[in-house]
């Protein structure tokens, strides 16, 4: 009889623990529903990068936080491997791709996009004293770029791709620029807004060719099927354009209005 009573107590205790766990899980989910996890490349200055104190800052970081405030949600900035961005989004590990994410027809097959919010172009950068002055001069040269980026798409679509000696991929732009400075590369294909930032930090080190590879626009990537989040986010972005918030953030990081209206 005592053994039966003990078993009843044990079963009751286990049921109580499971119920509590279920309740806590539900509570955590409710909390997560009020937080946007944003996937970024944390070395993509000036859009999203780590400052001297290792804090993640940048234009897109300020932009995302301002939009989230209007949406009434919190933000978690999640550094990711940029080449895995779409799989991170589709798996649900992140809610948005927001860090200089170029809108392309190929990507539209994988994600939903907001309207463009920033203009950009893929350009070719070399060292200031390089003899490379035009795209044709890349014939027989070694060119670097970020893997799984729109820089790769821009280079692939240009006739010069068939003439370069080698295209070397890097996990981020910083590594590519370091190899350029060390002489292991002859040029780097990179976002115009990114190299403009580095040229202000390292004056006299780089030069950008006059011929750009491809104009483009940035948008925010949302998981396919989540039109509700897309619409809510777009509404917040539109409000930021209307009330001057977008202009204020643009002037902070670029010194001028670069936002697409």
TrEMBL record:
SMART domains: PBPb, PBPe. The keyword Signal applies. Residues 1-28 form the signal peptide. InterPro entries: Iontro_rcpt_C, Solute-binding_3/MltF_N. GO terms for cellular component: membrane. Keywords: Coiled coil, Lipoprotein, Palmitate, Signal. It comes from the Bacteria. The lineage of its organism: Bacteria, Bacillati, Bacillota, Bacilli, Bacillales. PROSITE patterns: PROKAR_LIPOPROTEIN. Residues 35-257 form the Solute-binding protein family 3/N-terminal domain. Residues 223-250 form a coiled coil. This is Amino acid ABC transporter amino acid-binding protein. The keyword Coiled coil applies. GO terms for molecular function: ligand-gated monoatomic ion channel activity. It comes from Neobacillus bataviensis LMG 21833. Residues 35-256 form the Ionotropic glutamate receptor C-terminal domain.
């Amino acid at each position: 009889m005592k053994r039966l009573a003990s078993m009843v107590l044990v079963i009751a205790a286990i049921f109580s623990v499971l119920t509590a766990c279920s309740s806590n899980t539900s509570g955590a989910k409710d909390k997560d529903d009020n937080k946007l996890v944003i996937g970024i490349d944390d070395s993509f200055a000036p859009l999203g990068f780590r400052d001297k104190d290792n804090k993640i800052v940048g234009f897109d970081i300020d932009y995302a936080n301002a939009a989230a405030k209007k949406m009434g949600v919190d933000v978690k900035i999640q550094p990711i491997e940029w080449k895995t961005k779409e799989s991170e989004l589709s798996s649900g590990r992140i809610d948005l791709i927001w860090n200089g994410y170029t809108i392309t027809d190929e990507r539209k097959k994988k994600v939903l996009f907001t309207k463009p919010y920033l203009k950009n172009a893929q350009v070719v950068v070399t060292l200031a004293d390089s003899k490379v002055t035009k795209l044709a001069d890349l014939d027989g040269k070694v060119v670097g770029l970020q893997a799984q980026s729109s820089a790769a798409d821009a280079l692939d679509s240009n006739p010069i791709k068939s003439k370069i000696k080698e295209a070397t991929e890097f996990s981020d732009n910083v590594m590519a620029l370091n190899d350029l400075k060390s002489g292991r590369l002859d040029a780097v294909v990179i976002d115009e807004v990114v190299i403009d930032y580095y040229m202000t930090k390292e004056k006299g080190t780089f030069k950008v060719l006059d011929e750009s590879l491809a104009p483009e626009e940035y948008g925010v990537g949302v998981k396919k099927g989540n039109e509700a989040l897309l619409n809510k986010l777009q509404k917040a972005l539109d409000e930021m354009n209307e009330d001057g918030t977008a202009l204020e953030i643009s002037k902070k990081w670029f010194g001028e209005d670069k936002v697409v209206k």
